[in-house]
């Protein structure tokens, strides 16, 4: 795969805006791993529509959904090499390329609601985190929402003890690894596009994701139970290859910035509804029993996961965790 990325990168370098390409549009490849019919998929399509409109066709955005170009880890490599120009990986996926700070978003129950999330992403902390991307050859343009994660398995998951000994697919985040270890489960890192098959064949017993991802990947067809836990958050950082971005004519960069701002508002305003709609569809399909927790059961889950904060403090940074909690103004225990 690396060879393929390198070959694609050199073709991209050859075809990139040179004087001879003055008339041909600048191609911006936007790769992502989820279905088009999800919060990220819709925001990406909106960006394409607006970017092409505002640049009068000078930029052509090619959106590649559903891991058609690259799987999780490969897509960040591809971006750094210039084989694609734009991505929106989840916060969890920046750890493996050395930006561990984004894993703060993975801490269990750190975000009580989307309003608190905005305080972080729209404030100085959000900007400070985006700056960290520069050293990795990328520019952070926006934060896109998905929503809150739920747990699923072929076993009823109610109390922390129910998780003991089960294998759970996780994204490549040390915080998520610590979270499942705190529950006595066995976490297994796996690319998003491989999850359905792993659940179907029993390679893993369960997984955590948002309703929109569960529904569009048909995970509900191979999981008997899903519990409404809202225990964690999945959101994205829209990143662009820095060399590509800095090399764009200023007016084009401005038009793309405007398109990104509007696509972000569009996507973030409807992400919660997308997840609600997906849950309704899962219920309608009738293949998964949806379990709700009582306040006491919810508290037991929170309590079981609190050790994670200590476990990952040295990796993510205690000052960052403190600042994050200060911004949201809430404790993860309530
Ligand atoms: C996952 O790997 O579960 C998610 O990050 C997929 C996505 O991009 O929403």
UniProtKB/TrEMBL annotation:
Q: Which UniProt keywords apply?
A: Signal, Transport
> Mind naming one GO cellular-component term on file for this protein?
outer membrane-bounded periplasmic space
Q: Which CDD domains match?
A: PBP2_TRAP_SBP_like_1 (cd13674)
Highest taxon in the source lineage:
Bacteria
GO biological process, alphabetically ordered: C4-dicarboxylate transport; transmembrane transport
Q: For this UniProt entry, which residues form the secretion signal?
A: 1-22
Keyword Signal tagged: yes
Statement: the UniProt record of this protein carries the keyword DNA-binding: no
Protein name as annotated: C4-dicarboxylate-binding protein DctP
Species: Bradyrhizobium macuxiense
């Amino acid at each position: 795969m690396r060879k393929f990325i390198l070959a694609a990168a050199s073709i991209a370098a050859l075809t990139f805006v040179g004087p001879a390409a003055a008339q041909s549009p600048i191609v911006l490849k936007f790769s992502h791993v989820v279905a088009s019919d999800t919060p990220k998929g819709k925001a990406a399509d909106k960006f394409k529509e607006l970017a092409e409109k505002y640049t009068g066709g000078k930029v052509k955005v090619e959106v590649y959904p559903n891991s058609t170009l690259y799987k999780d880890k490969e897509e960040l490599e591809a971006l750094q090499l210039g084989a694609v120009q734009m991505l929106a990986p989840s916060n969890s996926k920046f750890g493996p390329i050395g930006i561990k700070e984004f894993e703060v978003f993975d801490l269990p129950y750190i975000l009580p609601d989307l309003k608190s999330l905005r305080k972080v992403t729209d404030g100085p902390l959000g900007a400070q985190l985006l700056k960290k991307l520069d050293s990795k050859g990328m520019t952070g343009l926006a934060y896109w929402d998905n929503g809150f994660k739920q747990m699923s398995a072929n076993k009823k998951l109610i109390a922390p003890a129910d998780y003991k000994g089960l294998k759970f697919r996780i994204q490549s985040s040390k915080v998520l690894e610590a979270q499942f270890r705190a529950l006595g489960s066995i976490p297994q890192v796996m690319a998003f596009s491989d999850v359905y098959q792993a659940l179907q064949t029993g390679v893993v017993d369960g997984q955590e994701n948002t309703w929109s991802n569960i529904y569009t990947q048909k995970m509900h067809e191979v999981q008997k139970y899903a519990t409404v836990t809202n225990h964690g958050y999945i959101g994205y950082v829209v990143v662009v290859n820095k060399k590509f971005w800095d090399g764009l004519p200023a007016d084009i960069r401005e038009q793309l910035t405007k398109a990104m701002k509007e696509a972000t508002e569009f996507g973030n305003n409807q992400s919660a509804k997308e997840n609600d709609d997906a849950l309704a569809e899962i219920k309608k399909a009738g293949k998964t029993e949806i379990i709700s927790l009582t306040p006491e059961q919810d508290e037991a889950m929170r309590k079981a996961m609190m050790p994670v904060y200590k476990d990952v403090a040295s990796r993510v940074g205690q000052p960052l965790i403190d600042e994050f909690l200060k911004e949201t103004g809430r404790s993860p225990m309530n």
